[in-house]
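hey m, so remember when u said the tokens were messed up on ur end? i reran from scratch. heres the input so u can diff it against urs
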Amino acid sequence: MHVDELILRLLEAHLISDQTDLLARLSAEGHELTQSTLSRRLKRLGVQKVQGRYRRVEAGPQAMPEAEIAAVPPNLLVVRTAPGFAQALGLALDRDPVPGQMGTLAGDDTVFVAVLPERLAEVQAHLVRVLAGR
């Protein structure tokens, strides 16, 4: 059985309230994982701790939090957002680029948007509209 399938099966069958317990159960089934690897797998599988136990949570539509945009002439926009949202925002901007937008680089709460220098104000105005939901 693939480890991801086993994780989901164990979470359905047992009340698991901490990752140490889950790691022990996986080990008993012949799967040795580190805690950091398990955390990444849980995130990818959509597993979260809810009411004291780990379970799979269906992801619903998530509204983007507020963001601040700062121009750094001649060709950079810096977008600051809530922790954990920068990569989703960068991906959304890359999927629908405005003319003059050359690319993005996203961290955890910051997105750098590379822009043609002559289009800086235009791209900034576009990002303001996108972030306002228009």
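this time it looks ok to me. The CA atoms of residues 59 and 109 lie 20 Å apart. if urs says something different then somethings off w ur setup not the seq
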